[in-house]
Amino acid sequence: MTHGIDIVLINPGDRRQIYQGLGAELAAIEPPFWVAVLAAYLRQQGARVAIIDANAENITPDETARRAAALKPLLSCVVVYGSQPSASTQNMTVSGAICRALSEQGAGRVAMAGLHPSALPERTLREEAVDFVIEGEGPDSLKVLLEELAAAHPDLANVPGLWYRDSAGIRSNPRAELISDLDSYLPIAAWDLLPMGVYRAHNWHCFDDLEHRSPYGAIYTSLGCPYNCVFCCINAPFGKPGIRYRSPERVVDEIALLAETYGVKNLKIVDELFVLKEDHYMTIVEGIIARKLDLNIWAYARVDTVKPENLAKMKQAGINWLALGIESANPDVRDGADKRMQSRDILGVVRSIQDAGIRIIGNFIFGLPDDTRETMEETLQLAMDLNCEFINFYCAMAYPGSKLYDIALAEGWDLPAAWHGFSQHSYDMLPLPTRTLTAAEVVQFRDDAFHRYFANPAYLDMIGKKFGSRVREHLVEMSGTRLKRKLLES
Predict the structure, then answer these.
(1) Is the fold of 7-172 the same as that of 211-488?
(2) Could you point out which of 39, 142, 284, 370 has its C-alpha 20 to 30 Å from the C-alpha of 483?
(3) Cis amide leading into 331 (omega within 30)
(4) 455 contact partners, CB below 8 Å, separation of at least 6
């Protein structure tokens, strides 16, 4: 069959399966930056590229496959990336369904790439209806794969990071080298290939203007993370901890493009740790100020990387929210280098951020291996004492690619029966047990803690004073949605 385009890149998703009732209005719909930057890189190399954002458009696997097949691609690639540790594996159920539909509809050869496939490449090739799995970052692998597929005599052994089958069985090639020149491999993303009018920010991100959550942009200014937390899988595509940076000038140019061409004000900086290398993030901050861009930004930081002297400029640039990974109140439970931080240190940093007019979304984890009911209660009390403008309460999960996943396999702990069971908000969600608590006790504590936090009068009063009665009422309504859990029904 004569093909029409070279590659269609597909962003998978099933908001109802992943978020239950939260998916309709409360959850964000994030533009898939990694898909769009892969498209831009391949287009730069001369490939004819299309994108189908099945998550944003909320279309079925069959509809996704029909659209792909109509383009007559040489290759259809489902990119199961996710911009946080929990966001890739939970999408594998629908990703698998999309791949089956692509194969049935004859949408070219079928590949899968991203964080989860990089963590479990052989299993993904064995279990999913795919011809290829890409292990690693992807740009070079997809470029060479397209070249080989278009050749008269393809030699798949030339494709870095490729898992595939031949007459001898399953084959794999060494990964591509890590990208060293991010500005060449991460050009300005192909925003023109995305349905930019569909994306919307998180509800909390827009507490200052709850009615205007769209348009929404999301970009990386760096890749990877230098830390190696036990629960995190974010470095799976890279093979090791580490961080590499795009040039601040390129980043500011892209932010300006989003603001000026697509009307984006609400912006997420997707980096696992944006507030780390001071000359990098502050050059971006200064560039935004110099360009006089009107933005509402949120980004990730660690308690021990925040420098109070930089906060006023960060606020001036439109960084209105910082997400802090606080994890646990108990230093013996807290992972990695955070063990050096005491609750009083955390409180001091939080207050200095809030004094600068920047809001905080605090991230906490229940059910880490050393957690007990008492230490989880400590964590909840710390969250309530900090009184952050918003919080995420997570259960510890053994995401493929994390050290916790390896521990869970070695210990024989139960893992979710289906990939969407790794979603923190799904009906089938199954967290890890601790040494003293069952998985059901952990999820029950987490869900009860969520409702205790958002019903706390001190929290609701603070929200009312900062953001007004409309946001306060919105949060009361939000916390009225109680998630259904299969684990708690027996």
Answers:
(1) no
(2) 370
(3) no
(4) 479
Selection from 25, 47, 123, 124 nearest residue 80 by Cα = 124
Q: Is 25 exposed, middle or buried (0-12, 13-18, 19+ CB in 10 A)?
A: exposed
427 near 486, Cβ under 8 Å?
yes
How far is residue 155's CA from residue 407's CA, in Å, rounded to a whole number?
38
CATH architecture entry for 7-172: 3-Layer(aba) Sandwich (3.40)
CATH class of segment(s) 211-488: alpha beta
Alpha carbon 350 to chain centroid, angstroms: 24
User: What's the pLDDT score for residue 23?
Assistant: 45
pLDDT at 235: 85
CB 400 within 8 A of CB 116: yes
Give the residue extent of every domain in the chain: 7-172, 211-488
Q: What is the pLDDT of residue 425?
A: 87
Tell me how far CA of residue 360 lies from CA of 156, 178, 193, 276, 287, in angstroms. Answer: 48, 33, 33, 17, 23
Phi, psi of 232 (to 5 degrees): -105, 140
Residue with tokens 């200052």: 208
Are 112 and 78 spatial neighbours (Cβ–Cβ below 8 Å)? yes
Q: How far is 226 from 279, CA to CA, in rounded Å?
A: 17
